[in-house]
Fold these 3 entries.
Entry 1:
Amino acid sequence: MTVGKLKKESKDFYNPNPNATVQDENQLLKNSLNYLKAELNKFKELPLLVSEVKKIVNGKVIIKVPNGSHFLVNIAGDIKVNTGDTVLVEQRSLTVVQKLEDSKSFDVEDFVIIEKPNISWNDVGGLEEQIKEIKEVVELPLLKPELFKQVGIDAPKGILLHGPPGTGKTMLAKAVATSSNSTFIEFVGSELVQKFIGEGAKLVRDLFRLARERAPSIIFIDELDAIAAERVDMGTSGEREVQRTFMQLLTEMDGFNSLDGVKIIAATNRFDILDPAVIRPGRFDRLIQVPLPDEKTRLGIFKIHSGRMNVSNVNFDKLIEDTEGFSGADIKSLCTEAGYFAIRNNRSHILHEDFVNAISKLDELDSEEDSNCAGMFG
Ligand code: ATP
């Protein structure tokens, strides 16, 4: 920096008012000095560590610092802390100097979907057996817990819906939340694994706390296999982290009373890889298979998704024959696609041929996807 530039900058910074008295100027200089000193001190201050209180032991606390180590430390002054609180600790002695009022490093409510769904049983095509069972083991205990007390039996805490993608597992879970007037709290297993490295177990704990606060409620865990797959190799820290999250899930499930207004519904497409610990009694001990729809169910699904469409002369019996192996989600896209064919032909009503064209298009897309996958893997 040149001397000229320095002079100019200091002039810009210190630009006294020509009418000011010497006292005014003196005060101005003092204020600037105090401000600069305070700013300088900020740079000198040692940062405080954000830690979690794990346990309280005779007036001291065991804290977990960010690298995962645990220490038994003192608490400054009369700060009151509880297990699970997030606190600031001084770096050298690790003394707790402040409790963070919003005591969680993240708020579980920001990471799960909480809703009062409006999907009703009538929106679900077919699946009568599955609906009957879910009503018995989820809806009834939430609506009439006293019945179970009188009879002296425990309803299952959790049910596991398993079957191929797009077969209506999420819909079933939402429909029972609607019919039992419960809060629906959803989180996706794979997201938990990707987003919450080091925080998964805490998220699970907070999730169950939230569910109890919002009871009656249903916790819906989609893609359970992402956290509850049987693990053979626990070599990586990522695997160990997933295992910790999984163990916390089991602990929470074991810990809560089946009648306290919270039910857990999990869903998976990969039942074959689940750790058997997850389906032990008292956990997800009611298994409900949701298979690809049979003819009767396909008809039900067609009726629901074409219900609001302006269809004319559509032979649904024929469509059902031609959609063997389609999931409910496929049938929904088929109806939308048929609508597009009608629009492309400047018609406001949908004919049978639109559905036929839509089936061919979806088949084409499927085979394109298959050949892309084959290209990628071999
Ligand atoms: P995934 O395993 O991929 O999460 P899923 O089994 O949870 O899938 P849903 O998300 O419930 O499937 O279904 C996807 C969509 O497919 C639904 O929004 C609905 O439109 C349609 N669908 C699936 N099954 C049915 C059904 N039985 N009746 C009516 N619609 C259905």
Entry 2:
Amino acid sequence: MILQHYPFELLPLPYHYDALEPYIDMETMYFHHDKHLGSYVNRLNELLEPYPHLHNWSLERLILENRTLPEDIQEDVLKNAGGVYNHQLYFSGMSPSVTELKGKLKDALLLDFGTWEEFYKTFVEMAMKIFGSGYLWLAADDKGKLVLVPLPNQATPLSIGLTPILNLDVWEHAYYLKHQNLRADYINDWFHVINWAEAGRRYQNALLGNFLQNSILP
Ligand code: MN
């Protein structure tokens, strides 16, 4: 298992820019991946460049052990490592292929939310309520229980001891070009392109305590 470390790279999308059409458009995907994620990658590398002892630190370690970093870069590293980590999870959490919610993740989702409809309704309500920039996260605790957690900006569930399973980016750059102010339409469209196979893999890792494998693309 090789974790990513400095110099971080802009990993290519695991599908073409237009592959999620008509739900997420090509232009949004291009700007979101190449420009938004790209600048988090560049900024993170700039911040770490003067600190060789941090050059073998993984994204997860930069986030989890953030408080031990030199104070002048601590906050900016957290924001930018979060920006890279969260976007990688977001992009690999979508797929142009139809995937199925099944297995242990499906069992847990039904156990923790009652029905699919209840899960969907709660998810949409919580994603609509996020004020300003952030993500809605489906995450698992150390017992495998699933929770929905809204987090601001580039905060990650790792920082609060949860394993990320899926994340919906509700920063306006994620949908404004196509959906403008209609976040509800974007949320509905995102549900059509969720990569349940990847979510299932991440949940398995959560159950095994292997959360470090979740940022590694399969
Ligand atoms: Mn984004």
Entry 3:
Amino acid sequence: MSVMYERVALIGLGLIASSMFWAMKRAGVAGEVTGYARSEATRDTARRIGLCDRVCDTVAEAVEGADLVVLCVPVGVMGAVAAEMAAHLAPGATVTDVGSVKRRVIDAVGPHLPNGVHFVPGHPMAGTEHSGPESGFAELFDNRWTLLVPIEGGDPEAVSRLRAYWEALGANVEEMEPEHHDLVCAVTSHAPHLIAYTMVGVADDLRRVTDSEVIKFSAAGFRDFTRIAASDPTMWRDVFLTNKDATLEVLGRFTEELFALQRAIRTGDGDHLYDYFTRTRAIRRGIIEAGQDTDAPDFGRGAKR
Ligand code: NAP
């Protein structure tokens, strides 16, 4: 594959940035890749494992001369990082991000970017519960969706180039409005994470009552929750603080449904429970048919990651 961007700067060197680096190397779509992370420890790790062609000690140095800059930091600090790098961006560069929330990132980053720099917000809908520079792998985006959220009046050429870049990294790409993106993600990712965090918290409280039996006899349902609830606390705190309205809307509906199911259990309404579970089972089948998960009985837990 031919080079699509001569110099790509990865700002933040965690799970997503490191996966992008290895996927870029696999695809051969980037000339030089520079990287910057806030802490010296992360920059040292990156140098040790060969993450990025050049690891820089300042964000200014990392973005200098880059024709693609990717913000891979938690959503809550995107604006501050954009402000810090703005004066050093090359004219004509494309700035994108990988944040899990789009409206707040657009509002926080957009105003800092100088004229002549193209801003194309994005979100690869792929992740694991691991974080940090050593957690990435080239296959993370394969056959997963990356959503691009072009801003009004943006440059269509910059959007189509970024689309081709993500496709080269293995992703399927779709464009979406920011508000719609935030609602879709509240349903498919943000609310489920909050529910998992809650369930594991409840079990932890119970553990004190049942003397560790919750952990010892932990069965599939609970174990799957614990995997999700092991996700990075900083990232997820920022997601809920910045996608407040959509998450609260989904959680409101969730609570209503939970009460209805609770009532069905209390009143012995087996038909309600059976019909509900039949409907949800069909959704699972749809996800497998769309190629977004495996129907292996262990949820792919035997897989390498
Ligand atoms: P991560 O593994 O925790 O890495 C975050 C990186 O950001 C680290 O290199 C960290 O540097 C750096 N950073 C944190 N605060 C900073 C600051 N104030 N200034 C400069 N750098 C800072 O995170 P990730 O999972 O890759 O997530 C990155 C972004 O991708 C987030 O916006 C998240 O919403 C989005 N995303 C995540 C997933 C997922 O499942 N993980 C999926 C899709 C999108 P240090 O190591 O030096 O602290």
